[in-house]
Amino acid sequence: MKTYVILFIFLQCLLQDLCSASDSFPRGVHIAFVGPSSIAISFYTRSDAPSALPWVLIAEQNYTGTTTKSVSRYHHDVIVSDLKAGESYEYEVGVGGSSVNGFSYSPIDISSSNFKVAFVGDMGVNNSAATISALMKKHSDYSWIHHVGDISYADDASVKIEPSSGSGYDEVYDLFQDSLQDITSSTPYMVSPGNHDVTCRVTSDLGCPKQQRNFSAFRQRWRMPSIESGASTVEHHNVWYSYRVGNVHFVSIDTESDFPNAPTKPTTKIGGGAGGGFGDQLSWLKSDLQAANSDPTIDYIVAMGHRVFYSSSLTDWPLNAVKHVSSAFEPIFKDFNVDLYICGHKHFYERGSPAYNNKPVERGLVQIVNGAAGCNEGVQGEGKGKGHHLIVKGNYEDTGYGELEVREGEMVWRYVLSEGGGVDDEVVIKSKRS
């Protein structure tokens, strides 16, 4: 029923010309975890309404939030607290007098050790219809969805390989968030930054206004628990953070900036925009993982990021990016017993054997490359890189997404084909704490 309500409202908006550049109609509604009983409800509008605060009406309570402005969009976040697991909440969002309702959310029990999570990587508005359709049918089975970087591919509009809207960066990003609203308005959608999330042009900052540089759209359009997890004291940091559900600690890293020899630096000119300067990521990561590793109630640690440590295809930009990313993060993951690293960047699926420093080991980190949800560039063929010997399962033809099921005594990873829903790979991930 909710699907038809939202579709009717969106069509009504279009027919009445309420979605023009001058309107304040809420669009791209999505939610995210920010605390044990709290969520951020976020959306964007296209109008200038500086005197009006964004608001959410839920459980007969009215919450107000904050607004940030990009070039021609206003991005709104409202934090809703004191939600009870197992209850179903209907809610309405708005700015001033413009509002939309028909959304619902059922909080999960974050103390539960039985849940499923979906993972997508490298997903844009093109070639992703099968994945989005599959998630549309199954998203109620998942406690949340995590996108491991390269979100919308709006920056490809600058090189004319983004044909969906024919206009510009914000228009493509709008289309992406609008197309997911039926999913993201009821199922939390968490995000990690990728190389396509740095600036408004895939090649450089040239021609990009300040409000679209240095991960600005990524930070403005999403609201992640960076403050709540001690990663930052600044609102809309978003680039690294952690959260816990049940007996699993999840940590999201930024493989693009803020570590030695990062692909994106404040001085980057060519092959991507300048970026970074958000803080000491590695010191925070060590502290965060040390606390998780020392907690006897945590059975698994799962890390999410964009770039790979090893794969069958190691050609990358900038040169030696794979080496620098793995040098920065893999030793920390080893020191604090991270069990699983889920990444993307390569547009295929690969599962590696437990490994460290490009060598198989008995109780090493399991890396999953999950970058085939669908984007402008299509599914990538198998390579023959130096990490090829570590790959135990690969798929270089089909779009798909990951599914992580946590249940009593074990954690199971699956790769699900977008077309047909078949399980192409399945493995039990063993905890280093057992």
From TrEMBL:
Residues 115-348 form the Calcineurin-like phosphoesterase domain. Residues 26-98 form the Purple acid phosphatase N-terminal domain. CDD domains: MPP_PAPs (cd00839). Keywords: Glycoprotein, Hydrolase, Signal. Its EC number is 3.1.3.2. It catalyses: a phosphate monoester + H2O = an alcohol + phosphate. Residues 365-426 form the Purple acid phosphatase C-terminal domain. InterPro entries: Calcineurin-like_PHP, Metallo-depent_PP-like, MPP_PAP, PAPs_C, PAPs_N, Purple_acid_Pase-like_N. One of its GO terms (molecular function) is acid phosphatase activity. Residues 1-21 form the signal peptide. Coiled coil: none annotated. Belongs to the metallophosphoesterase superfamily. Purple acid phosphatase family. This is Purple acid phosphatase. It comes from Triparma laevis f. longispina.
